[in-house]
Specification:
By secondary structure, the chain is an alpha+beta fold. The strands form seven sheets. An eight-stranded mixed β-sheet has the order 6-5-9-3-2-12-15-14, with no helix packed on it. Helix 12 packs parallel to helix 14 (644-658).
Length: 891
């Protein structure tokens, strides 16, 4: 490897020997004063601008959804914020130190209420300020002496003055019908009580300082009905049965944040395994424990992987995986007691491979949090993104190790990176790192930026610093800050120290600026010119620069450059025969080749690189940079695509375009029929997933295929699981059989099966049937957690567009109400408005101007912006409902 001074000693591209120029040990040229290519002679640099100042919604559908969106946690509400609730408390010398909470709860399970008594050991320089929501405070005693207190909003101030000792608080509360705090989660024949505390809902169960930096030990004792099980973070130390009641006592937890405390009460079935000193337990409602074997194996293998990668043991004696029957979130990383929606945990013989892949990723994501998030926790919600994006990134690492045949990094690019690139291409985006001041702001940043962009930037960082350096930096970070709190910069410092690269400076640029760059590439004589600016989907221009770790292949040779200026030129004395930038899509940027695409196609691209070309082309087409018919011509290159990722990407694009225009109907029909022929006899698991998705999408817009596939509906029970969704959609389209689909939804015990029939109920060609399906939600005929599936599916169906918009306008306050205390509706609107609003932009804008819903502000702004972009795109390509030109054979 070369030293920094060697950056000036480069040879030309025609040299037989490649010189590795670097300022570290990674192969990257990083001399900031004058960036130099690791290819050849010194770069010419033109600094044309100064650096600019500084999902996922859980909807089950066939369009690409980041797996991280599945874990997008539903958090607390924007209303009634007390003055102390979101104060940024000083971490240097805090005026309040909490040692422990000793909590006793007497739970009246039948009447949905509880009496609580909490003993808090603490020190305070002033009156003690805690948080409390919807709790009736009965008595407060400080070191044995009754004291006065004041409740104001969510603030609970105890008039202690300077104080050290024990604060005893008696109170009572209710088991909620909201999906936060301790709430009722119903299933057929009963219910459980389960907690969801992130971000600020622990205060709904006990008075506490509900702030991630104020870690404490938690000791829990619960009295409830003797026929109920009680689950918490730790295994119980004693169970005392006294007639119809029992008291379950749990030992102290490790020091942890309030949002990680867990309590579950109900008639749980459990399946257990023990491995390497840890008890693995899957808990389900009665009758569903048969789906526990697969998640137990994934959890065990994930812990094994992370113990090796992080260099430290899992810290608790047991790990519960709890299937909650009603859950606004996808999953939640409570330390030692992870909660899940049933559909992302339980797997049986009829589960599709698509669901198995999703379950594996979600479990790995939450297990990763047991170290990164639980053992070491963010100081404040500004660094929420680091918690979630790191867990997202590490989940794919673990899953790739467990199932290498799945090539999950292709799913990462398609789901996490692609979703984030689309979301972050809007003016109404936000930096990865966001200053958080209120609960609604916490809620709304659980999106594609926090998960997908953050994870993609971490992937780019790993490629820049080197895999081994990255891993050792992470290990050092976890060891230094275990059982404590840290910020993003603490992680950058550790990786920078190990790798000897400029990690901190580079990461600060990427996480504190909104948006991302487009890299323009053109040939100017014997120079390859590279220029960067911000990519905006609305076509506007904004000059900004990022430190981009550019990877490229010129004439078959791989090269690296840390591009820190707005424009650079690379000498190519022997010309350019073949060219590709952003190899394997490790960088978070788009690339536009000016007159060079024919050379790109000569570069012997991998499936991921071919994906990158068509992914960028789609964005350029929506933006207006690429002509629509040029884009259709490009798709011809992919008609007979043999590889999983590029084929899936083209299907994704055509399906999303079909949702807003029928101009692509013929191209889409031809592509999907061709792909089904290619995939017909393939047995590998990715091909099975892809075949099912292709069939489901084709059934939606090709009535001939729908009728053909619908003839097999009577054989549904014996069908390949990944084809079942397509069969349901085909039956809906061809038969319009509302009653049988609804009956199947009601009687099916499996969450995946219920989801299939929900999708079918919004896939009709007759708008009135789709409208009838939407009314099921507000009539209480479907679970609250299934409303998102219904909305997502209806949004994709052009024949349901009007009915869905009408339902939202009529039931908007109801929709807000069922997700009160979460940011779910905001994420729904970001996805839905760009489609549902087609040809009614002003109506949509006016509706949300008249309906003040602060928890949806960011989602509405982003959704309307994307809607206007879609309308501009449709205006450019013409209003014809039928594709009038079918481009054949264009290259």
């Amino acid at each position: 490897m070369a030293s920094p001074s060697d950056c000036h000693k480069m040879k030309s591209l025609s040299s037989d020997k490649e010189q590795a120029e670097t300022s570290s040990k990674t192969g990257w040229c990083t001399k900031s004063a004058q960036p130099v290519s690791p290819f050849s002679a010194k770069l010419e640099v033109k600094n044309t601008a100064q650096t600019a100042d500084m999902l996922r919604v859980f909807i089950l559908q066939d369009v690409p959804i980041p797996a991280s969106a599945t874990t997008a946690i539903a958090r607390d509400s924007a209303s009634s914020i007390g003055s102390n609730s979101f104060t940024r408390l000083q971490m240097g010398e805090p005026d309040l130190q909490i040692e422990s909470y000793d909590l006793f709860l007497d739970v009246d399970f039948q009447n949905l209420r509880f009496d609580g008594k909490v003993k808090i050991k603490l020190k305070s320089e002033n009156d003690v300020k805690l948080n409390s929501v919807e709790l009736e405070i009965l008595e407060v005693v400080a070191n044995g002496r009754p004291v006065k207190y004041k409740l104001e909003g969510e603030d609970f101030t105890v008039r202690t003055g300077k104080f050290a000792g024990e604060l005893d608080i008696k109170y009572r509360g209710s088991i909620s019908d909201k999906l936060v705090g301790l709430y009722k989660a119903a299933y057929d024949g009963g219910y459980v009580a389960s907690t969801q505390f992130e971000a600020v809902s622990a205060r709904r169960l006990l008075p506490c300082l509900d702030h991630p930096a104020y870690k404490a030990d938690f000791k829990l004792t619960v009295k409830t009905d003797s026929d109920n099980s009680v689950i918490s973070n730790m295994p119980p130390t004693s169970v005392r049965v006294e007639g119809p009641k029992k008291t379950v006592e749990f030992p102290k937890t490790p020091r942890m944040s309030t949002y990680l405390l867990y309590l579950g009460i109900g008639k749980f079935e459990e399946v257990k395994d023990r491995f390497n000193g840890v008890d693995y337990i899957v808990a389900t409602v009665p009758g569903k424990s048969s789906g526990a074997k697969y998640p137990l194996e994934i959890a065990r293998d994930s812990v094994k992987f992370f113990e090796s990668y992080f260099g430290s043991k899992y810290n608790l004696p047991k790990l519960h995986l709890i299937a909650v029957p009603e859950f606004a979130a996808g999953a939640m990383e409570n330390w030692g007691a992870i909660t899940f929606r049933e559909i992302v945990l339980l797997v049986d013989k009829d589960s599709s491979i698509r669901i198995k892949k999703q379950v594996a990723e979600v479990i790995a994501h939450e297990v990763s949090h047991q170290w990164f998030g639980d053992l070491v926790t963010m100081k404040w919600w500004d660094d929420l993104w680091l918690n979630e994006s790191f867990a997202t990134f590490m989940a794919y690492k673990a899953t790739d190790s467990i199932f290498p045949q799945w090539t999950v990094w292709q799913d990462f690019v398609r789901g996490e990176t692609a979703g984030a690139l689309e979301r972050d291409s809007l003016v109404n985006t936000h930096p990865i790192e966001v200053k958080v001041n209120s609960p609604s702001e916490i809620e709304e940043i659980f999106d594609d930026i926090s998960y997908g962009k953050g994870a993609s930037i971490i992937r780019m960082l790993e490629a820049y610093a080197g895999e081994d350096h990255f891993m050792r930096g992470v290990r050092s970070y976890l060891e230094k800050y275990k059982f404590s709190n840290a910020a993003g910069e603490d992680l950058w410092n550790q990786i920078e120290h190990v790798s000897k690269t400029r990690v901190k400076a580079i990461m600060n640029e990427w996480i504190r600026k909104p948006g991302y760059p487009i890299v323009h590439v053109k040939l100017d004589g014997k120079k390859l010119m590279i220029r960067q600016e911000r990519f905006l989907l609305d076509g506007s221009s904004e000059q900004s620069t990022w430190p981009i770790p550019v990877t490229m292949k010129i004439n078959g040779r791989k090269l690296k450059l840390l591009m820190e200026r707005s424009e650079e030129s690379i000498p190519v004395p022997n010309g350019v025969d073949s060219l590709k930038l952003n190899l394997e899509e490790t960088g978070f940027y788009r690339v536009h080749y000016d007159g060079l695409y024919h050379r790109v196609w000569r570069s012997n691209m991998s499936p991921v690189d071919r994906y990158g070309i068509v992914s960028d082309a789609h964005a350029f087409t929506i933006q207006g940079k690429m002509d629509f018919f040029q884009y259709l011509g490009l798709l011809e290159r992919y008609m007979n695509e043999q590889e999983y990722l590029p084929a899936f990407e083209v299907s994704d694009q055509l399906s999303s375009l079909y949702a807003i225009t029928r101009r692509v109907e013929e191209t889409s029909r031809r592509f999907h029929r061709t792909q089904l022929k290619i995939l017909a006899n393939r047995k590998d698991e990715n091909s099975v997933v892809l075949r099912g998705s292709m069939a489901s999408r084709l059934a939606l817009f090709d009535m001939g295929y729908a009728k053909e596939l619908a003839t097999r509906f009577n054989d549904y029970e014996s069908a390949e699981p990944d084809m079942k969704q397509a069969m349901v959609v085909a039956h809906a389209r061809a038969a319009g059989d509302f009653e049988s689909l609804f009956e199947n939804y009601k009687k099916r015990p499996s969450e995946e099966e219920k989801s299939r029939f929900l999708v079918g109920l919004t896939s009709f060609s007759k708008p009135s049937l789709n409208a009838r399906a939407m009314e099921l939600a507000s009539a209480g005929e479907i679970k609250k957690q299934h409303v998102g599936t219904l909305l997502g599916s209806a949004t994709r169906n052009p024949d349901a567009r009007t009915a869905t918009w009408n339902w939202i306008t009529a039931k908007f306050e109801w929709l807000r109400g069922i997700y009160e205390g979460t940011g779910v509706v905001s994420r729904y609107l970001t996805y839905m408005l760009p489609i549902l609003g087609i040809d009614r932009t002003e109506e949509v804008t006016k509706f949300f101007a008249q309906h003040n819903a602060p928890e949806t502000t960011k989602g509405v702004k982003a959704g309307i912006e994307k809607l206007r972009i879609n309308q501009a795109f449709l205006k450019r390509i013409g209003s014809s409902e039928k594709q009038i030109v079918e481009v054949k054979g264009r290259r």
